[in-house]
Amino acid sequence: MAPPPPPATATMAAATDHDDPHDERSSALSSTRLLVATPSHAQRSSVVVVGLGLIGSAAIRYLSAAFGSSVLAIGPPEPSVSWETYSGPFSSHYDQGRLARIADPDPVWAALAARSMARYRALEQASGIRFHEPVGSIRVSPLHDNSLYRSFEVARRHGAEQELFEFHDMLQDRFPCFQFQTGDAAIMERGEAGFINPRNLVAAQLAMAEKNGARIVRESVTEIVPMGSGVCISTDKGRSVLARKVLVCAGSYSKFLLPGDAKHLDMTTHARTVLLAEVDAREAVRLRDMPTFIWHLPKNPYLNWVYGCPPVEYPDGRVAMKVGGTAWKAADVGNSVEDLSAWFKSGGDEVEQKVLEEVLLQQLMPGLRTLSLSRKPCVVSFTAHGRPYIDAVDGDRCLSTARVFVATGGCGAAAKSSDEIGRLAALMVVHGRWPSSDMDSSAFRAVYARKGKTQSSFSSP
Ligand SMILES: Cc1cc2nc3c(=O)[nH]c(=O)nc-3n(C[C@H](O)[C@H](O)[C@H](O)COP(=O)(O)OP(=O)(O)OC[C@H]3O[C@@H](n4cnc5c(N)ncnc54)[C@H](O)[C@@H]3O)c2cc1C
């Protein structure tokens, strides 16, 4: 097998952030030989990305802009059989809608979203795949909730087009499809805010990566073993790949794939159940101007937040609104791969479905005419500090010498921001140093679980 092409000719035009990809660290990426005995049948790559989800597909695109066919991406396709009989890893993006908005009380999340959303249109045009519906997004909270004003202010600094509604009557007049509670206030964000189709966003990123020459293998990774100056990656189909570096973007499965002590990455995985409210064509037309919504319900005993997308077509032909929530108390289903699989195969939680139905049909949209109501399980992975981990996870090795990197822990908010998360991760891997001059690496550092585990923080979608 020929060694990977030297990256001296690599360019990373789409990925620049005041960085020069031609520096000596990037050429070390593929010129360093693996210094240990390795399987003779193994393929070779400069960089392998594990996971073809939202973050992984973005990272692959940016890495492929630098390294072309020397980038290999490995991950299983969406299951084509029923989830009960599927034996591979699941994903948090098998859906038709994820909210996109800049407004967020956390300036880091707002920046990640603003940068990603600003690139949606160019990605759609370049790939020919539509994934973005800028229908606007409304964030509703009781007036006294400081996080509303904080979100407004943070988003304003990022240039978001937004309007603040502080009076219930004005809010109600402006959005008659919703029923607001007395005392509710809201931010309505326009511009690029709305929702994305996560399946199509992944498809667009992968199409661009393939155009750049990246190789994509639809298999599951079973083991990552650091060896000398590189890593050996094995898959469920018996493939072995030798790479100088590996970037793990396997969502809630990431920590189980990491070698050595990196397995103790501090991640908590919460079970989530979403409600699909199927509507007929007339109802879909009535709601065609409906923005996405996120609602703070401090008095609800079960859910802290609910959010939803307007009706969209699902692969089985149904047109449905997707509604989800953040339970005050959620089950942790991320203690093992078996736990995760069991949750996805369970079909979701009936009690959570009933609570979502009650909030949607009795409080938020009492006039909604539905044809059917069904549920789907999903998971959200929280990190110790409430932002994704984008870091080296290779024992004592620092960024410049590390072989194993991670970009994971979406905290329920990473779909809309996956392009920037993937870009930062790709640049970090290419250059062996933190790539952004205006985002502090400490916001994304990997944290390991210890006794008396750090408390996770919770962001809204
Ligand atoms: C119900 C729900 C609603 C959400 N709503 C929003 C929202 O409105 N807005 C928003 O911004 N975010 C939202 N999110 C969060 C968002 O979907 C996640 O943050 C995002 O999917 C995380 O991306 P990821 O790439 O880390 O993980 P994923 O998208 O889950 O991708 C991980 C990939 O890794 C692969 N993988 C796993 N194991 C292996 C292995 N062994 N080998 C190879 N590949 C492997 C999987 O197949 C998968 O494709 C929501 C999440 C949920 C569950």
TrEMBL record:
Q: Where is this region: Disordered?
A: 1-29
* Domain FAD dependent oxidoreductase, first and last residues per copy: 47-426
- Basic and acidic residues: bias regions: 16-26
Top-level division of the source organism's lineage: Eukaryota
Cofactor(s) of this protein: FAD
Q: Name one GO molecular function term.
A: flavin adenine dinucleotide binding
Record's keyword terms, sorted:
FAD, Flavoprotein, Oxidoreductase
Question: Which family is annotated?
Answer: Belongs to the MSOX/MTOX family.
UniProt name for this protein: FAD dependent oxidoreductase domain-containing protein
